[in-house]
Every structure is written in structure tokens, then in C-alpha cells.
Amino acid sequence: MQSLAPFFPYALFALGTLAAGYAVLVYGLGTWAVHARVTHPHQAVYLFTDPADVPPAVAAEMKPHADALARLGFEAAGWLRSGAIAGSHIAFFVHRGSGDTAAVLHLAAAPLTWVDLQTELATGEQVITTNLPHQGIFAAHPASHIARLPRLRDVRALYEAHRRHVALKAADRGAAVLVPAPGREAEWLAEDETRTWQRQCEVGMHTLEGGAYRLTWRGALRAVVRVAPPTAWLARASMRRRARRLERALQEDRTLPPPRRVVTVGDPVPRVPVPIERSS
Q1: Which of 6, 53, 85, 260 has minimal CB crowding within 10 Å?
Q2: b/e map 202-223, b = 16+ CB within 10 Å
Q3: Does residue 130 contact residue 115 with C-beta atoms inside 8 Å?
Q4: Read out DSSP for 214-227?
């Protein structure tokens, strides 16, 4: 062992050099590449789709979540897709009694299937509960309260957690909640996405340039840190710790939100199927 001791400084220097090179390559050049090349269209577009255009395997994976939402009193609004994300499938639901909306989402590129629950108050506040197993790259905004609970795969348990999350986070107890009018769900999703991008601009993560949202240098570095190891592993572990703490807090506090006035946004319109190319 003593004969190897003189080589330890050289080994440490080599490891340090490799670590520095990795950091420059990934966090330096990676941040530059993300800032320069990653953009998102300014105009959000969502389109209704025919259920027959959803691949059978995807529909079968999403169906248990959709059935669970229907049993909880959610009304099916239809199948939609994002015009900006290929291979996206969304089953959208509205609970017109409580004013909550829900979406079962599938992203073919991942592939991932998850459930988002949302309550939008007339004050502009949003309370969102999701079991998406990724922390994402978006920064927190004071008007958007997001609970990421990836361990809650059961839709009923997730919805119960969402209702307690609304009671915990919604500051204005008397504010009305907003839901889209029947047939206006695609417009609703597009407006919600646009508001999300605008809020990311407000917190300095994105900027609007040339008709597209682009990550700022700060936002690009945050994105790389969130997706590149080893910092991605640390971020994921931190998300899981926060999720466990929030789960415990929601289990201890069984308070449910008071009944709120539900306001329907927009005039109902007849739903006309939109011809689309078959999703793949």
C-alpha cells in the first residue's frame, strides 16, 4: 500500500481534471447549446382529436386513469393533442361541481403517462397536483402552487391530496373557481400554456424572442442542471424528499376547501371533430 502512496496525488489530479472537463463540456457547452437552440412556439395550439386516432396501446394505458376520474364525478371533455409536441395525447376532464379540471397525459417520446389536477381561481392563482415522476425545468411562480407527488399513482388518492392542497394553498377562501365552457377546452389549454410561459418569463427563466420562447442563460443552466448527471440525481432526490414531506403534511391536515362558486368561462360551442393526421 505504501508503494502506491506516491501515485495518489497524480490519481487525484487526473480525477479532478476529468471532473473539470466534464463540467465544462456538460454545464458550459450544454448551457450554451440549450440557450441557443431550444425554443418553444409563442402561439400555443391544442386540437381535439378523434379517439380512433389514439394508438390502441396508448389508449389502453390511459383508460384506467380516465375511468377513475369518471368515477370521481369528472365529465369527459374529449381527447386532445398539443400542436407543438408530436406524440402527445391528452384526455381532458372537468368537474363542474367542484370547479376542478383533470388531464390524463401521455408523451410518446418519454414514454410517460401521468395525471394532472388543477384548480384555477378567479384571482389568477392556480393549484396543481401531479404524479409526473420528473421534476421538470420550470421555476416556481408565486401564483402557481404545484405539488409533485410521483408516488401517488392511485387517481382517487391523488385527487384527495389535490383537494387538501387547494385548502392549504389557496389564499383567497372566497374566490370563485373557473372552468371552460363545453367545447372550449382546447382554447382553455392553450391559454393556460401561454400563461405558464409568460410566468416563466416573469421569473427570468425564459424570454420571448422572434415569436418563440427561449431559455435565458439562467434558465438554460437550470435546465442542464436538472437533466445532466450527477446534479440531475441530486435534483430528483430533492424532489422526492419534498414530495414525501408534502404527502405527510396533506395526510396530517385533512382540511378540505370550502365550496366555491364555479364560473364557466366562454360560451358553449358545438364540438366539431378536427381532422388530424394519425398520431404515432
Answers
A1: 6
A2: ebebbeeeeeebbbbeebbbbb
A3: yes
A4: EE-HHHHHHHHHHH
